[in-house]
Design goal:
Layout: E1 2-20, E2 23-30, H1 38-50, H2 56-59, H3 72-82, E3 88-98, H4 108-119, E4 126-131, H5 137-140, E5 144-155
Parallel strand pairs: 3-4
Antiparallel strand pairs: 1-2, 1-5, 3-5
Helix pairs in contact: 1-3
Length: 156
């Protein structure tokens, strides 16, 4: 069995649309070199960590000519190649979004379906939940949101 965890945090930005789990929402998005998809960034780090690879920033450094505004779905596709995903089998993915601003309950079904399609697994293998920061810190002040991902895999 292989286990990986990842996390990501971005400030909110009124200048960009929100991307979560590869889906676009008509809400205030995130600052970042890419589209700022906190779920996919954390998922990428969890996948990389599960097989002992370096973090997402190693493969997509913001100080080098990676395409600015790159979609996180493209980053995920590259990560799946890096880890030889076709030789692995996902047992489950557990995702927590920590935000005072984003209502996960309204988006959960679509987010889980998107992740299952991106990873080519069953919807039942993906769990997404939302938490708040009880109005504490950057997240509690609605200035930022974060995501935590844990993934369990095995060799196929």
């Amino acid at each position: 069995m292989l286990i990986g965890n990842g996390w990501d945090l971005h400030k909110h930005s009124a200048l960009k649309p929100m991307y979560l789990a590869g889906l676009e929402f008509d809400e205030e998005g995130f600052e970042g070199y890419s589209d700022g998809d906190i779920i996919l960034h954390a998922l990428c780090d969890a996948l990389l960590g599960s097989v002992g690879k370096k973090d997402l920033g190693h493969y997509f450094p913001s100080k080098q000519p990676t395409e600015k505004g790159i979609r996180s779905t493209v980053m995920l596709e590259k990560v799946l190649e890096i880890i030889d995903y076709d030789k692995l089998k996902v047992r489950n993915v557990d995702i927590t979004v920590i935000s005072q601003r984003i209502s996960i309950s309204e988006k959960r079904e679509n987010l889980e379906e998107s992740i299952s399609k991106l990873l080519n697994i069953e919807d039942s293998q993906v769990n997404i939940k939302g938490k708040t920061a009880d109005f504490l810190g950057l997240i509690g002040d609605k200035k930022a949101s974060a995501s935590l991902v844990t993934i369990l895999l095995e060799n196929a």
